[in-house]
Amino acid sequence: MLFGMAGQVEVDRVQIVGAMPPFATLSDEELASVLNYVTHLEVPRKQGAKPGAMNAADVAGERAAKKLSPTQVHDIRKSVLH
């Protein structure tokens, strides 16, 4: 969410090519709230476990880390999902 993402993804067996804008203008607390909401939606999960909650300090740590391009984010997403 901090850096956006660009490239092709598959969602429900549908290929989507596009770009998600970065949301770095949101505060660390706002980003943590959005991430917690999205990651805790009631959707089927392959692993069955829900992720832990994020807080503003988690987001601040990511924000302070190496900056990524939207294409780099796409490559990381692809490597995590495969």
Explain what you see.
The protein is built from three helices and two strands. It has a single domain (5-81), classed as Cytochrome c-like domain (Cytochrome Bc1 Complex, Chain D, domain 2, Orthogonal Bundle). Helix 1 crosses helix 2. The longest helix has 12 residues, at 28-39. Strand 1 and strand 2 (14-20) form a beta hairpin. Strands 1-2 form a two-stranded antiparallel ribbon. The mean pLDDT is 88. The chain has helices at 28-39, 56-64, 70-81; strands spanning 5-11, 14-20. It is globular. With 82 residues, the protein is an alpha+beta fold.
Tags for this entry?
82 residues, alpha+beta, Cytochrome Bc1 Complex, Chain D, domain 2, two-stranded antiparallel ribbon, 40% helix, globular
Helix-strand sequence: EEHHH
* CATH topology type: Cytochrome Bc1 Complex, Chain D, domain 2
- CATH homologous superfamily identity: Cytochrome c-like domain
The rough form would be described as: globular
The total number of structural domains is 1
- Structural category: alpha+beta
CATH domain class name = Mainly Alpha
Q: Assess the beta-strand content as a share of residues.
A: 15-25%
Low-confidence stretches: none
The name of the CATH architecture is Orthogonal Bundle
Largest sheet: 2 strands, antiparallel
**Helix proportion of residues, in percent?**
40-55%
Strand order of the largest sheet: 1-2
Number of strands: 2
> Number of DSSP helices?
3
Mean pLDDT across every amino acid position = 88
The end-to-end distance, rounded to whole angstroms, is: 20 Å
